[in-house]
Amino acid sequence: MPEIVLINPGAAQAIYQGLSDEFTAVEPPTWLRMIAGYLRNNDYSIEIIDQEAEALSVQEVADRVRTLDPALIAIVVVGHQPSASTQQMAGASELVKADFGVPTIMVGHHPSALPERTLVEESTDYVCDGEGPLTLAALLDDVPLNQVPGLVWQSNGDIWKNPRAPLIPVDELVGNVWDLLPMERYRAHNWQCLDGSDRLPYASIYTSLGCPFKCSFCMINVFQHVNRYRMRKPKSVVAEIEMLYTDYGVRTFKIADEMFVLNDRHVMEICEGLAKKSFVDELNIWAYARVDTVKPGQPGLLRRAGIRWLALGIESASSHVRNGIHKLFTRDDIFATVRMIQAEGINVIGNFIFGLPDDTLESMRATLDMA
């Protein structure tokens, strides 16, 4: 009998309707995996239910939970990108209505951004404000509720919000619980494999957490409540990719970092380590960067490491609109960076936002033309 069951809620059908049957990605739940790995490494017994990957109904999840009979359930609400976490509430809200018969806590980016509101609006016993592992560990250790770090809870109609737990060293959040996941069910985005690469098996990993930038629209740092960039040891990252390739046959990857191409030494050591592997030409990896973080000479190394796609947050064609959200690069910078990346055989994904505070119909038309 596990002490805790961690659930990745299924929201794909509600978000994408019929497109979810074939076209959308089905990603391993990275944040859930990191929490689960921390707990297992600290001798807590765990089980994972990936409702989205297994396409389980709420009733099927509830039946499985009752069979497992845990002391605690954690519903981890994190999207494929952190900013998509609120979309996952479509599935999480239905899950917490089920009668699991044991205490339930909601963890993740949406609950951490709106902890009191989540506690009031959802049928959950507790909400976690922060990363999650230390909060869950304290609950499992039967620490008094008013002493559980990061816990948001109710008593006699009053809402209590405890001080957050300290951030955990990132190398303790590696999340090596791949053996508990339905690996055969994960698949890449269809566009990532337009070159004929296999959509499955597929894996997403982190090499760093957080972001030092302060884009006004972004909630990437909400789980840690500080603009901080925490990097894993590059050798650990390379070893994880090699393990996934060797043990599970994964060749198609997503580096889920909020900003992978940022710290030169971090990127260089990971890419050089991958470039030395005999299987590197089989890899199809995509990652995130910024227009102003990709440096001359870097795209060549990225491509030699198996990175075939870079996503750039361009946001708007209007410099006025970009300046308003604290993205201070120019139109020339955008086109120069895109061409530099493409010249090394890497595809570019341009991320754009319509309806930013300074947007007008004219600026949005210009953004569409640029895209």
UniProtKB/TrEMBL annotation:
Cofactor(s) in the UniProt record: [4Fe-4S] cluster
Domain B12-binding residue range list: 14-150
Pfam families assigned: B12-binding, Radical_SAM
A GO MF label: 4 iron, 4 sulfur cluster binding
Domain Radical SAM core: 197-371
Keyword set, alphabetical order: Iron, Iron-sulfur, Metal-binding, Methyltransferase, S-adenosyl-L-methionine, Transferase
Record has ATP-binding as a keyword: no
Stored InterPro entries: BchE-like, Cobalamin-bd, Elp3/MiaA/NifB-like_rSAM, Methyltransferase_Class_B, rSAM, rSAM_horseshoe, rSAM_sf
UniProt-recorded name of the protein: Uncharacterized protein
Organism in which the protein naturally occurs: marine sediment metagenome
